[in-house]
Every structure is written in structure tokens, then in C-alpha cells.
Amino acid sequence: MTLIQHWHRFQWNRRRARRLREFDREAEAYFAGQSRGEFPMGEPTLVADHYARKKFRAVAGGAPVFVKLYRGKAVAEARRNVALHETFSQSRIHVPRLIHADLGEETLQRYNLGCIVLEWVEGKPVASGDARGAAAALENLALFHGIAASIADSAVPRWDEPAAEDAAREIVEALRLTLDPFGAEEERFAWDVARRGAKPLLSEAPPPVLLHMDYTPLNLIRRPNGEIVTLDFEDARLGCFAFDLGAALLHFAFGYASDELAAQRPDALFASPRMEPLLQSYFAAGPSGAEGFWRAQGRAALEWSYFSMIGNLAKKSFNPFRYSRAERRRYLAQARRCWKRLRGEIR
Questions:
Q1: Same-domain status, 10 and 131
Q2: Looking at residue 347, what is its pLDDT?
Q3: What pLDDT does 50 receive?
Q4: Domain count within the chain
């Protein structure tokens, strides 16, 4: 790794650490204020940490609840989340019950955050190695995509060309700061992959559907009665179904960033026999025209998802505040290996 890469990584980590410390103080003040407020909560235990969102398990009214705190501009995501919960309550999609929302301007001005409280869902994440669970997850994704007609354009942003360009820019930056070497030739190749994968999904796609944008086994909880509950749709967008489907296939057919996935190039993944049962589960309940479009452009969708996975691994590899040194080393090794697969340098 070059000296410049080390410097950029140091600056990125320092900014992130400062934001996390500020958010910690704001969250502590909020819970202290709520203990005397209209919706008292106690015993908050951190579940997931992010510089713009925090998730806690807490107790309210003697029962466990799931608390999400959104910092600053992320409060807009929380308001969209509340609107989506109301939409899902009228659909076949199972989501956690919304118990309380504190998203007013007064709370934002006082604590620099907003809060929503959901029921605590008992159950286990859907395992990517479970064939029946994976098929049920893909059918659930099709139902998720099928309710887009009831979503107002003003409530959910569109996953359009500027949004895809911004996402690609983040991926390329993470690769530039992480993979060594990553020079001008690699950067040109990365942009070519991003644009080649995204272009047909944006310009030739069927009518837009509601995208989850983070449809992973960890965001699907199977209750003891077998019901699948969908979590974490703050990043929801309106766009081509194939963006969600490509990522879901990598997760549920192979396991995201698994050694098995890293051992294959994207073109081999597209032709894998593991894909077909999952695709049939999706197409059986999916939007009109989905199968024909996937057969024609699915390879581009899978390549985009594979490229996005490499970027996520690269970002995780230089984040020292959430992962151990061994995990960072593993993420970096996976990112390098998948990048070489994408470049076709390993046969």
C-alpha cells in the first residue's frame, strides 16, 4: 500500500471516529431524556453501529423493542421508513410492527436525531445454505417488488443514472484506497464494469419496482411459525428489479463474499445451476416481464452486484471501528481475490 493510500485511510478513519463519538453522546442524551418522556425506554443495548444510524434493543412497557436512531439528515430516511411501514401493513409483506415514531423538528433540534421504535422480532435469520429458506426468500423478494404500484414517487427516491453513478464512485474510491496496486488502468476498467453493468438496467428496464437495496439473509428473520419478516428498508428505491435480484442471488446461492463465490468469475456464476431454482421462485411471483428481461440482461445485473460486493469488501477492510484485525485482513483478501476474478487474471 502506498503512502498516499495510508494517508487517505487515516483521514477517513479519523472522520468516522469523530462522527461515531458525536453520535454516541447524542444517543446517550436522547435515552436519558426519554426515560422521563412520553415513551420511556430503558436498558438500551447497542445492536448495530453506523455514523448515521444506530440500532438498539431496549425495553418499553415491560417488553423488548427494536430502537433505531437516525442522525441529522438521515432522519429523512426514518420518515420514509415510517411511510413504507404503513404501505406494507396493507400488503402481503411481513415487517416489524411500528410502535412509536419521534421524528419531529423539536427532537431533531434538541438531539440532532430522530427515533423509531419497532417490535422486537423473535426468530433466526434465513440461512443462505438453506435451499427451502432461500427459495422462500426469493419469493418474498418478488412480493416486495410487486407492491411498487402503491408507492408514491415522492415517498421513495429513484435508483436512476445519477444514483448509480454515485454508488459506482464510492466503489471506485474504496478500491483506490484499498487495493494495491490500483492505478489508472484498473480505475478505467472499474468504471467500464460499472457503466456496462448499470446501463441496460437503467435504459432498457421494465417499469420500476420497489427495491430493498440490502436484501440479505441478515435482513430476513424467520419466525418460529415459518413467517418471513423483512427488515431494514431505509435504503429503498424505485428502480429495475434486477439490481435487487442480482445481489440476492449472490447471497442466497453462494453466500455473500464466501470462498466459493470468490473462486468463480461472474460469467460462471450466471450459468450456475444453483441459480435456476431461485430464479423460478422469484419469477413465479415477480413483476410482469421479469423473466424475459433477466434472460437478456441478467448477466449485466450479476456483474454489477459482483462489482458492488468487491467495493463493500474494500470499504470494510479499511474500517477499524467495527471489525477485528483478522476480519479486516479477511475482507481485504476477499476483495483482492474477487477483483482478480473480475479482471480475469485467475483462471
A1: no
A2: 54
A3: 79
A4: 2
CB proximity list for 281: less than 8 A, separation 6 or greater:
135, 136, 138, 139, 142
DSSP state of 181: S
Angle at 339 between CA 333 and CA 343, to 5 degrees: 145
pTM (2 d.p.):
0.88
Nearest-angstrom CA–CA distance, 2 and 258: 28
- Write out the residue range of the structural domain in which residue 68 sits: 3-120
Look at residue 178 in the predicted model and tell me its pLDDT. Answer: 87
> For 326-331, which contacts have Cβ atoms below 8 Å and span 24 or more sequence positions?
331/257
Which regions of the chain are under pLDDT 50?
152
Residue 10 CA, chain-centre distance (Å), reads: 25
Please choose, from the candidates 278, 284, 200, 287, the residue with its C-alpha nearest in 3D space to the C-alpha of residue 241.
Answer: 287
Burial grade of 25 (CB within 10 A; 0-12, 13-18, 19 or more):
exposed
* CA–CA gap between residue 230 and residue 222 (Å, rounded): 9
CATH number at residue 200: 3.90.1200.10
Distance CA 241, CA 213 (A): 10
Q: What is the pLDDT of residue 49?
A: 82
